[in-house]
Amino acid sequence: MNNSSSTQRLTALRARIMDIGLDGFVVPHADAHQNEFLPPHAERLAWLTGFTGSAGAAVVMVDRAAMFVDGRYTLQVREQVDAALYEFHHLVEAPVTDWLADALADGMRLGVDPWLHTQAGVDRLRQPVAARGAELVFVESNPVDDIWSDQPEPPTASVLPHDLRFAGRTSADKRAALVAALCDEVLDAAILTQPDSIAWLLNVRGGDLAHTPLVLCFAILHNDGSVDWFVDPAKRSEALAAHLGPDIGVRAPHEFASALDDLAGKRVLAAPDSAAAWIFERLERAGATVVNGNDPVTRPKAIKNATELDGTRAAHLRDAVALVRFLCWLEVMASGGALDEIAASAQLEEFRRSGEHFRETSFETISAAGPNAAIVHYRVTLETNRTLANGDLYLVDSGAQYLDGTTDVTRTVAIGTPSDEMRDRFTRVLKGHIALATLRFPPGTSGVQIDAFARAALWQAGIDYDHGTGHGVGSYLSVHEGPQRISKAGGSVALQAGMIVSNEPGYYKAGEYGIRIENLVAVTPAEDIVGGERAIHGFETLTLAPIDRNLIDTLLLERAEREWLDAYHARIAAEVGPLLDGDSRDWLVAATAPLD
Length: 596
Description:
Helices cover 35% and strands 18% of the residues.
C-alpha cells in the first residue's frame, strides 16, 4: 500500500469514528471466529494499515495511532506500515492496555467491534479504560466496514464431508464423549465458535479460508448430543445432509441470535478466550447462566487418534518426496545465479501437487533469501522478491494440506559457501532442535517447562529468538492449533500422547540472514524405562527432510548429537529413497551420508 492510500484511509476512519461519537477505535487482526488466517472481507487491519501479518492490532485515536505486533513481525511492520502515521509497539512487551493508559483521558469513548474481540480481550481493555475515566463502547456497525467501499463479499465455498477413513471416529462418537463431560458439569449446552472445532466435531471440511479447509460457522452443542449448526445455506449439499444425520440441525446464520435467546434459564458453556464478546452479552441479556470455560473440543481434537496418526505419517512421507525433489532442484538452479524467491516457492508447490490427497498449501510459503530470512514471517512480493545469491542463506518454511494430514517444515540451505558465523549459529539452532527431539519427559509436563532445551545452545552464545518453539498442528485442519504449545511465553497445557507439535528453534540477524529448522513431532505414549521409576513420554519425529550438512560445524556437536543426525538421515534414506529415482535419489544419498 502506498503512503497516500494509508493516509486517506486513516483520515476517513477518524472522520467516521468522530461521526459516531467516538474518540478512538481498536482494529484487531481478527474475525468473528478468531481465525488466524482471515477471509478477504475480514482483513480490516491489512486494508487500513498495509500490515499483512497474522497477529496484531491498531488503535486509532483522533490525534494519534499505534500498531501493536509480536516478535515475529517487528521487522515486517516497519516495512509495511507508514511510520509517519503509526507508532510501533511490541504486543507483549508494550501491550495495547499500557498505551491506552496514556492515550485516554476522562470522558473519552473508545469503540470496539464486539464480534472481533473475545470476552477475555474485552475484559483486559476495560481496566485501563475505566482507570482513565473513559468508556468502552460496543459499536453496532464496524466503522472500517463503513468506509471500505470495495470490501469483498463473505466466502460461500461448499462444505464437504470428511471421510471416516481419514477422521478415524464418527461425529456421534465424538459428540457422545463431549456430552458426558457437559453432563458431569451440569451444563445444558456449549457454544462453539471456532470453525476448526466444529469441522472436527461434525467431520466436515470447507473452503472459506485460504490454506485451511474450514467453513465459517457457529454451533450449539446440547447435552442430548444434538447440534444446532449455523451455516450459510449456499454452502450445503445433498451429500452433506446424508452425512450429518438427524441429530444435526442446519440453520441459517441469522438464526444464531435467536437460538442464543432460547437458552434463557440454561447453564451454557462459553470460552472467554475464543468466543466473541457479543455472544456473552447476548446470552446474559437472554437470562442464561454463562459458565466460563475452554472450548470443549480443543483438547480432544488435539489428541490424534490412531487413524489420524497413521494418516499424518503417510502425509509426511508423501511430503518428504516433494521436499527432496525440491532440495535437489534447488541446489542445481541456485548455482546458476538466476533463481528468485517467487520461482522457488512456486516450484516447491508444484512438486507437492503431484502427491496423493494434496489439497492446498497449509500456509503461504515463506521463501526468504539473505536479509529477507531475518523477517520471521516474511512473505515474498513482487517488490521484495530477491534472487538467491552466492553467500546467502535461503530459508523455506512451507506446508501442505492433505486429506490425511497437515504438514509444516522449515529448512535453511546455504547458497554457496556459508560464513563461519552462519555455521556457528546454524549448528547452535540444530543442537536445540536435537535437544527437543530427543527429550524424555513425565506425564503432566507442559510446553513452557521444556522450551529452554531448544534455546540453551543459543543462550550460551548470548543469543535467542523472539518466537515460540512449537505450536500444535491439526489433522487436515489448522496448521496452528491449540491448546498445546512450546514457548517461554506460556503453554501450561500438559503434552499428551497423540498431540502433534512443531520443533522449530531459530536465529535471526536483522539485515543479514535468518535460520530455522522445523520438524513436526508427535508425543509418544508414556513408557517405562529400564531402571526408571515412572513412565516417560518422548517425541516421534514425523518430518523427513535432510538438514543441510554444509551449515554444520561438527566440532560444536556432541557425540550423541552426531549420532542422532546420522540416524535421522539414515531413516530418511531408507524411507524416502525407494520412492525416488534418478537425480533426486542420487542427491538424497549424498545429502544423508554420515557426518565426516
